[in-house]
Structures are given as C-alpha cells and as structure tokens.
C-alpha cells in the first residue's frame, strides 16, 4: 500500500511539473523533446530499479531493427542482440521476449486477457505504476480484446474485479493503443507445460499510443508486460 501511495504522489507531482513546463512549450517542442528522450533511452544502458533498490528490468542498450528485418526474421526479435523493432506508423518499439503459449487471437474472436506490467516514465526516469507486485495479485488488469480483420481493440474490464492497476491509476477503461501492437505476433493462452511461458514483451510507447496522462502531457513510457488468457 505504501508503494501505491508513493506512486500516486509521484504521478501527481510529476503532472504538476509537466503542466508548468507545458505553459512555455508548444506541442511541436513537446514532441521534439519526446523524440530526444526516446533516442537517449535507446542508447543508454538502462537498469530499472524499484524504490527499495530491487532490479526490476535490465533494459540495456537497445538495437533497433526495421520492420523489414523483423518480418525477414519470422516476426521475431533476437533478445540475445537486444533487438527492438520500430513500427514506423505508430512510433512504438517492441521486443518479443516470449511468443507465449496457446494460439494467436483469430479474426472475429474476443478473449479476456490478464495483463501484468511495469510502467516506466522515460521523462522522469522512474517507475510510475506497476501491477506485478503482491498488492495487485488478486486484482490483475483484465482486458476484453477483440480481433476484427487484424485490427485489435480492447477495454479494461471493471466488472470482474472492479478494475486493476491501470484503471485505478488513470481512471479509464481505455487500453493504451501501444499495448495492442503485440497481439499480431504473440500467442494468447495459459501455461500448460513446465517449459512453456505466457507471452512477454517490452515496449517503448510514445504519448500518441499511451495512456491518457501520457497523451495529454506528452511523455513516453517503457513497459514490460505479460499477456495470459483468463480461465
């Protein structure tokens, strides 16, 4: 609970600071600043730490590959080379850590998907929210995801468990568009065999594909996410 309160306080203070900065910045300048932040993040040997000094994610220096290379590799990113594919149409960077168990979501199909995540605010170089901790064990984020001819839409389900971390932090059932990018390439199922693992990705999401606060205040976020089919 203490971690949650600190996180909420950080979000409020960060928002107030950005609002004061935004008064003197045009939207074009904010977007340029965001591009610079992402470029610096890609080049840094980033290690994401929790407030108590725990290593949450060793991001490292990122090797960006094109969509053409990504598809030539069978829609894979080689984690040993720390590859992330940049999708030019959205500005989202994606690394597939695990493709996942089960099968891909087919056109015309809807599934309830459990998602656990770490959200790192690249502007403030700090964890902003997360659901991969004990506090949220019984209230994971549940998404109702639909594939319509290859276009994925989703909303957070608040009926099953009154909403998870994302809904609690941002008060919206809208799933960040960037979170839906991986669905074309990952499998959504449940772990059956010991050697299997549920889908896991890492994303760099610009404000245009992010949650409402990032969208309004123009900042990018890094996410580590897992996707698992709900029983």
Model description:
The chain has helices spanning 2-22, 27-43, 67-72, 165-170, 177-180, 212-217, and strands at 46-49, 55-60, 63-65, 83-87, 92-98, 110-121, 126-130, 141-148, 151-156, 199-205, 221-229. With 231 residues, the chain is α+β, with helices and mostly antiparallel strands. The protein has one domain: Chitinase A, domain 3. The strands form 2 sheets. Strands 3, 4, 5, 6, 7, 8, 9, 10 and 11 form a 9-stranded mixed β-sheet that branches. A two-stranded antiparallel sheet has the order 1-2. The longest helix is centred in the N-terminal third of the chain and has 21 residues, at 2-22. It starts with a helix and ends with a strand. Residues 1-22 have low confidence and may be disordered.
In short:
The chain is of the alpha+beta class. It has six helices and eleven strands.
Largest sheet: 9 strands, mixed
Given helix and strand content, the structural type is alpha+beta
Proportion of strand residues: 25-35%
* CATH secondary-structure class: Alpha Beta
Multimerization state: single chain
Provide the CATH topology: Chitinase A, domain 3
Low-pLDDT stretches are 1-22
Shape: globular
Radius of gyration over alpha carbons? 17 Å
Number of helices, counting only DSSP H or I runs of 4 residues or more: 6
Q: Got a strand count?
A: 11
Short descriptors:
two-stranded antiparallel sheet, nine-stranded mixed beta sheet, Chitinase A, domain 3, disordered N terminus, alpha+beta, 26% helix, 231 residues
């Amino acid at each position: 609970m203490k971690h949650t309160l600190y996180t909420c306080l950080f979000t409020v203070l960060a928002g107030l600071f950005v609002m004061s900065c935004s008064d003197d910045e045009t939207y074009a300048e904010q977007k340029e600043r965001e591009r610079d932040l992402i470029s610096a993040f890609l080049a840094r040997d980033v290690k994401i730490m929790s407030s108590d000094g725990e290593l949450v994610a060793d991001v490292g220096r990122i090797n960006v590959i094109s969509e053409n290379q990504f598809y030539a590799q069978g829609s894979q990113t080689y984690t040993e080379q720390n590859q992330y594919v940049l999708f030019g149409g959205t500005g989202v960077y994606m690394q597939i850590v695990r493709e996942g168990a089960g099968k891909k979501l087919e056109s015309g199909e809807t599934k309830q998907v459990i998602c656990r995540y770490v959200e790192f605010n690249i502007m403030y170089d700090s964890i902003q929210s997360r659901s991969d901790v004990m506090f949220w064990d019984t209230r994971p984020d549940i998404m109702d995801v639909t594939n319509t001819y290859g276009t994925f839409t989703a909303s957070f389900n608040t009926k099953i468990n009154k909403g998870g971390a994302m809904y609690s932090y941002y008060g919206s059932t809208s799933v960040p568009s960037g979170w839906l990018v991986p669905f074309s390439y990952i499998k959504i199922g449940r772990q059956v065999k010991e050697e299997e693992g549920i889908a896991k990705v890492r994303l760099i999401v610009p404000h245009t594909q992010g949650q409402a606060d990032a969208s309004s205040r123009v900042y990018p976020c890094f996410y580590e996410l897992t996707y698992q089919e709900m029983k």
